[in-house]
Specification:
alpha/beta
């Protein structure tokens, strides 16, 4: 497949790709920043993003996942969170009406670096962050210890149900 075809936006109703996970409808758009071409071989497929995101959903949703480089990730984190560094994932939620609506920004370089440092499988780390994002979209937070315990328990259950290891048990 020519690189230019891989960079374009891809949008689908995930029910066409992943009909058996649950009865929740997910409309997912996946965008790839043109500056992450060197990371594209490490990026999950749209099918994988659909499967992982849908596994964490309990409500219908319309979501865009944007895969970015460190420069773009840093800019979003600085402009919207006041933190001048690239982070692994940012979640932007729009309103509280159904279907849920939001944008997810995943920084490919940061995710790859974290997976290497934590001795995690890269796809498992992407799956975890995708599930994490789906929970944020539904209002889960981890700003205090009690909320973090609840969210992490759900993340672990969902990620393990997808066939991956516990995301909070790092390898050596």
């Amino acid at each position: 497949m020519p690189m230019k075809d891989m960079i374009k936006n891809s949008k689908s109703i995930c029910d066409e790709l992943v009909p058996t996970i649950n009865k929740i409808e997910l409309e997912l758009t996946v965008q790839y920043s043109s500056n992450i071409r060197s990371h594209l071989k490490e990026i999950p497929t749209r099918f994988q993003f659909c499967k992982w995101f849908k596994a964490g959903l309990r409500q219908n949703a319309q979501v865009t996942i944007r895969i970015v480089d460190e420069v773009e990730g840093r800019r979003y984190n600085r402009d919207y969170r006041g933190k001048d560094y690239a982070t692994n994932v940012l979640v932007f939620v729009y309103g509280e009406t159904l279907p849920l609506s939001g944008d997810i920004v995943l920084c490919a370089a940061v995710i790859e670096k974290e997976a290497n440092q934590q001795h995690k499988d890269l796809l498992a780390h992407y799956a975890h962050l995708t599930v994490h994002s789906s929970l944020h979209l539904q209002g889960y937070i981890h700003e205090n210890e009690d909320d973090a315990i609840i969210m992490e328990k759900l993340e672990k259950e969902i990620v393990v149900s997808l066939g991956f290891d516990d995301p909070y048990q790092y390898g050596n």
